Amino acid sequence: MAKFLYRLGAVAARRRLIFLGASLAVLAAALLLAFGSAGSFAPGHSIPGSPAQVALEKADRHSPEDGGVSGVVLFAAPNGAQVNDEAVVRQMHAVVARMQAEDVVAEVGDPLEDVSADGRIAVASVSFDLPSDSEVDPVLQEAVRATGGVYNEQFGDQGGRVLFGGDAFEQELEPFGVPETIGIGVALLVMLVTFGSVLAAGLPMLTAALGVGGSAAGTLLAANLFDVSQNALTLAIMLGLAVGIDYALLIVSRHRAQLTRGAAVAESIALAIATAGSAVVFAGLTVIIALVGLTLAGVPMLTSMGLAAAGAVAVAVLLALTTLPAVMSLAGERLRPKPSSRAARRELETRKRGMAARWVDAVIRHPRKVVVAVVLGLAVVAVPATQLELALNDNGSAAKSSEPRQVYDLIAGAFGPGVNGPLAVLVEGGSVAELNSTAKTVIDTVESMPGVAEVNGPLIAPDQRAAFVEVVPTTGPRDGATNALVADLRAALEPIGTQTGNYVAVTGLTVVGLDAVDKLNNALLPFTVVVVGLSLLLLLLAFRSWTIPLKATAGFLLSVGAAFGAMVAVFQWGWLAGPLGVPLEGPVPSFAPIIVMAVLFGLAMDYEVFLVSAMREHYARHGNAQEAIRAGSRNAGRVVVAAAVIMITVFASFLFSHDPNVMPIALALAFGVLVDAFLVRLTLVPAVLKLLGDRAWRLPRWLDRVVPKVDIEGHDVSENRSTVREPELVG
């Protein structure tokens, strides 16, 4: 592979204008298509084939007019008044009439039918003439919100107000904004410190920007053909930005190191792509495998997130191998540090005995103590992970200042938390009399169950072939008690269906969400086995060692345990929740753990490949295991540190998104990368390799004959080239 990449780098450097022009042309075309033909994001967390989803689809067929998108409008009475006062009723009816006049609104309920016990709050449903699997366009949302102006003008200065919430009025977050800006700014600062050159620092930013633009455009276009979650775009941007910068950073760093030692520009570019580029390919493949593995969960939302992020990583790898060498060729000699410059001195000093070498020397002097300290320390940090609770987010986990969250809280306070997530029991089959009889049995059974606040119905469907019973829990949708109630309902209602011969099922969006949680929990172990297994094979090919892949995986488990521990401590226990702006303490999003595992596993293998490939390169040339540890840490340590700081910054910056689905993932990834890069890869790995000695780099003879040889270090390309001669470690 190294020989192929060497030729690719040489061609890209020689035909730089063609390669760069092609990249820009493809990006421009993708962006133009995306701006003109972008698809819409798929809402919800449906699980095809799950019991609740099947029942929900049946219910939609029986009552198609009730299956569209819906929301709620909430009227708060002015101070000292109630919603049934004549003046307030008049203004409420005026708002309802204005809403009903909007073309997109199918029906608005009577707010006087749902009034709080104290008479201060009234709520009405708002149904839209849109399919249930669609979202209300923000422009249409604003048009409907504007109808409340007459009420707010009349009572706003007296404390009265109209608020809109529910699924139809969920706020769509901007796909690019403050988080990405912060991440880019800090990443640029880190690279300026790393390279000491504005030009060198700008190259990774350029290719990362091209990659993010291309992958974002591709995700938007894919939404025309497939169900794509908005979180898929956010994850693709987050990961594409992080790995795009890191992969380019590794190659540019290698190129400048070779230029410092006197290599010709064209030769250095080709060699950097052959060596550092090989590491990028293997690292990228590992991340892609982990992300594509998310499809194993069988959850459409998770599938779209995994494939979009995998596409972003693939684009980052492709640009690092094609566009980056073209841009480096255009930069030419300007990337070569001047002999007297700080960058050149730092490169030469690092190659003698820099900070990384001194740190590794300290580690390998006491390897057993280091291993015990790191493992025990990370085990303690991971303890909170044993209390991990999962749920699907709703408007109750949105930012407290958002309108949907305010509606959610007001409804919970006025009518009870269960009103925000009512359950439905569908009875299907038989005559109307039989439906009523079965529904009555359901009601008699459910009313006496603990955890039930209210039972309403039965309501016969328009086609008279089904009946509906509404069950309002005493707890909210994200409460564990609601999950327990659903399980109890299913157990209690199953005999009724068997005895009557009718179809009886519990459904509703809350139940669909709970089924999604169960599906994700059940998929976690198979996902881990498949992804880790494939990645172990990839690392076995890369390093021709059975201990390196096992060590890498064990280190990952420590990192992911610490990441989960931090996620629980902040989002469930509330540690630092205030300073971090956490909108609601409680269960984390059900899809967060599996996404964190996928992304963090890929990134952990990135650092493993970057670091260990440098060690392997030295060992292949000199055969000294201890010197290989020092040389690899010395050569790759500064790049790994810079790459990790950039990753941490990019992920941490997404805490400013205030998206409850993204924040736990961002925190876990930022903390996980911090642990993995500095404690696992730069501390634990050298200590373990010191204990293993030469055994770390060997395969059993029978396995050595079977495993194909892959040149990840570029040894076949560089062994006879004086420009890459590696000086011995001094000191």
TrEMBL record:
Q: What is the recorded membrane topology of this protein?
A: Multi-pass membrane protein
Checking InterPro entries in the record gives: MMPL_dom, Mycobact_MmpL, SSD
- State if Membrane is listed as a keyword: yes
Any idea where the SSD domain is? 239-330
Keyword annotations for this protein?
Cell membrane, Membrane, Transmembrane, Transmembrane helix
For this protein, the record's SUPFAM superfamilies field holds: Multidrug efflux transporter AcrB transmembrane domain
Membrane found in the keyword field: yes
| Localization in the cell | Cell membrane
Which GO cellular component terms, listed alphabetically, does the Swiss-Prot or TrEMBL entry include? plasma membrane
Primary localisation category: membrane
Q: Where are the transmembrane segments?
A: 182-201, 208-226, 232-252, 264-297, 309-332, 370-388, 523-543, 555-574, 594-615, 636-656, 662-689
Protein name, UniProt field: Membrane protein
Q: Which organism is it from?
A: Phytohabitans flavus
Lineage at the top is: Bacteria, Bacillati, Actinomycetota, Actinomycetes, Micromonosporales
